[in-house]
Amino acid sequence: MSQQLAEVETLFLHEARSDYTVVANRDGKRVLRGRLELKETSAGPRPGKFRVIRDGEDHPRQPDEFVDLARAAGRIRISEQTSPENRARLKEMLDGYQLEATAVRTCRRCASDGRYGPITSEDAIDHNGELICRDCARRELERELSYKGEFTGAAEERLEELLYESGDLDRIVSLLQGGLDPDLTKYDEVSANVDDVSPVRTEDLDLHPDLSSHLQGRFEELLPVQSLSVRNGLLDGDDQLVVSATATGKTLVGELTGIDRALKGDGKLLFLVPLVALANQKHEDFEDRYGDLLDVSIRVGSSRVNDDGNRFDPNADVIVGTYEGIDHALRTGKDLGDVGTVVIDEVHTLKEGERGHRLDGLISRLKYYSEDRMETHAGYDGTQFVYLSATVGNPEWLAEKLRATLIEYEERPVPIERHVTFADSREKAQIADKLVKREFDTKSSKGYRGQTIIFTNSRRRCHEISRKLRYDSAPYHAGLDYGRRKKVERQFGNQDLSAVVTTAALAAGVDFPASQVIFDSLAMGIEWLSVQEFSQMLGRAGRPDYHDRGRVYLLVEPDGVYHGSMDRTEDEVAFTLLKGEMEDVATHYDETAAAEETLANVVVAGKKAKRLNDRMIGEVPTKHALGKLLEWNFIDGFEPTPLGRGVTRHFLAPDEAFFILDSVRKGTDPYDIVADLERRDDEE
After folding, report:
1. Please, what is the Cα angle at 518 between 448 and 164, to 5 degrees?
2. Taking burial as the number of CB atoms within 10 A of a residue's CB, which of 203, 284, 456, 549 is the most buried?
């Protein structure tokens, strides 16, 4: 007891039924807990019984020991929850020993548990109609979280931060149960940022008369990124890397020079995109805008079973195609004619696994095609390359590697609110339904209803969510036929749909003027989104001609994973993405990728394949790759073997080629081979 007396900093007294709780603290920690009963004497109330509680048992002490404890205390506090009459009795008792006490607001839960928990209006937390301390609120929050699954440190920190900011535990619990209090779900706001760029007037552009007339009929001035591009040599034929946010007008940069050069007889325009859905939309856009001036065709990838990719017009003035569609034409020796302009949309695809090295190789092969044609066709002046992206972490480096002028415009046309809420997979569709309804029931100052894009990680989930939305909506993914996708695009554009539910197809740039983006999942397939992909997708929220602001909601499942190979949970990924910096765009080559691109370059350029390898973005181990191609009988010297031609024609990786050869030797049915290949792709 003497040691405890020496250590007492605060003595706390609190009414507890027929007696009083006694707590002695030192440095914020409890050093003694006890019970005190008062007795009435001729001198007034005095200590009657004093018991110290240790290990759950009462240990009687002399009443005078309480007096010694009180005298040793630096300060004495009485809880405001103690009734006024009992507060008066305690103060009268202490006055008898010339001791002063102050009534303070404390946490009732702490007091009931024998702890001293002072609270103020600044730090008290409201819960079930009473004010409790932060420690008790945090413990109660942890109990609620235990019902929802395991939360990572980042998610817990976010919820604690919201708890302390709001001072209301009930609101946080509501959030965990699917509540959508915008003051709590809001993580931050990306402000609108419009740089001051003097616009170029369309009437001042040196364009073909037909294009000039068409352009002036659409608008009087170019947007800032377009103006910057024109001032930095776009219409002089300079190669450019244009990096600017979604909805800032990048596409027109490629159109301006490509259509102009085509009309002036300086070669056709190849406008290349990563996905068939996007190619279809761009083809329709070009047909609508320029179909009366130029022949427009489309070239998309060929099927492993039926080579539909061959049915296109290589003599068209404008060819919209997928990367694979045009690369297939090069790998199979198609004559594309004089190519005046190549526009590579979504050039940040260079950083992706399989598609990245194929785009890297395609760019090199297109440059070779142009150079080779200049040597053999008099009057052909070569190709201008324009690369477009909204998300590049290392634009200067990439522009240098591409030998292009960097046009970078950091603009966000409308502000975007970013929200986070927590829900399990069963609750997510219900929350999405509330958000979609709320958004569609509002109109912007420009008169447009709010519409939503919901991103999820599988085609099946697209249909599942769409069925659960009360307002009209539709799934949209690459598994739908062209006619159905076009119908969805048309309905969304006419504001007949409140939402579309999609996988990666819309993320890559299909133009839906949505005001809200909801992430039902932060995965695409079996992999977590990258910062680039995430930024690209959330950039779909809010269009300056339609909306006053964009909204983005992340529906995060605590401890959620979508495949056993994932080493992080969805709540961990969420805050990494929200805080993340844009990744660098670079292409990396392993043995398989190096062999595939080197083989394609041998097929296209023969002995000049090394030159094509050397100017690719990534470092290609050419000597090693050639050795492997010889070993596998894919090439003979610098000539492809029939096997090698077949492998590169169908974009086969070496292991896929070996699998097919082995299956053929075993007599496996061809359709079973194709099915097995598709299954292998899905597993990867």
Report:
1. 110
2. 456
Confidence of residue 71 (pLDDT cuts 50, 70, 90): very high
Separation CA 676–CA 128 (nearest Å):
59
Per-residue buried b or exposed e for 243-256, using 16+ beta carbons within 10 Å of the residue's own CB: bbbbbbbbbbbbbb
Closest CA to 342 of 358, 326, 354: 326
- 139-152 in b/e form (b: 16+ CB < 10 A) is ebbeeebeebeebb
Identify the DSSP state of 541. Answer: B
Sign of the C-alpha dihedral, residues 649, 652, 654, 657? negative
Could you tell me how many residues make up the chain? 684
Cα Rg of the chain (Å, integer): 35
DSSP state of 552: E
User: Largest Cα–Cα distance of the chain, in whole Å?
Assistant: 123
Token pair of 81 as six digits: 């929850």
Q: Six-digit token pair at 678?
A: 């598709």
Among 88, 117, 122, CA closest to 104: 117
Q: Is the pLDDT of residue 307 over 70?
A: no
The Cα–Cα gap between 612 and 597 comes to 10
Backbone torsion region of residue 462, taken as left when φ is above 0, otherwise alpha when ψ lies between -120 and 50, otherwise beta: alpha
Pair 388, 344: CB distance under 8 Å: yes
374 neighbors 382 (Cβ within 8 angstroms): yes
- For tokens 């490629």, the residue is 254
Q: What is the pLDDT of residue 506?
A: 59
Q: Nearest 5 degrees, angle CA 363-CA 603-CA 655? A: 90
Contact 320, 241 (CB under 8 A): no
pLDDT digits (tens, 9 = 90+) for 426-461: 889 999 999 999 999 999 999 999 999 999 988 999
Measure the CA dihedral 528/530/531/535, to 10°. Answer: -90
Tens of pLDDT along 280-305? 889 989 999 999 999 999 998 654 33
In this prediction, residue 301 carries a pLDDT of 66
Is a pLDDT exceeding 80 seen at residue 469? yes
Q: What CA–CA distance (Å, rounded) separates 289 from 292?
A: 8
Q: What is the DSSP letter of 147?
A: H
Whole-number percent of the chain with pLDDT over 70: 95
If DSSP codes are grouped into helix, strand and coil, which group holds residue 624? helix
Residue 555 backbone phi and psi in degrees, to 5: -95, 105
CA 412 to chain centre: 16
**Helix, strand or coil, per DSSP, at residue 406:** strand
Token output for 493: 């554009």
Strands 19-26 and 10-16: antiparallel
Q: In angstroms, rounded to a whole number, what is the distance separating the alpha carbons of residues 188 and 411?
A: 17
Do the beta carbons of residue 271 and residue 258 sit within 8 Å?
yes
Q: How high does pLDDT run on average in the chain?
A: 89
Taking the C-alpha atoms of residue 385 and residue 365, their distance in angstroms, rounded to an integer, is 13
- DSSP per-residue letters across 179-242: ---HHHHEEEEE--B----PPPBGGGS---HHHHHHHHHH-SB--HHHHHHHHTTGGGT--EEE
Whether residue 257 contacts residue 234, with contact meaning beta carbons closer than 8 Å, is answered with: yes
Decide: helix, strand or coil at residue 477: coil
Q: Is the dihedral of CA 317, 489, 449, 541 positive or negative?
A: negative
pLDDT score recorded for residue 554: 95
pLDDT in tens, 94-114: 999 999 999 999 888 888 888
Helix (H) / strand (E) element for 531: namely: helix 531-538
The answer to whether 35 and 22 are in contact (CB under 8 A) is: yes
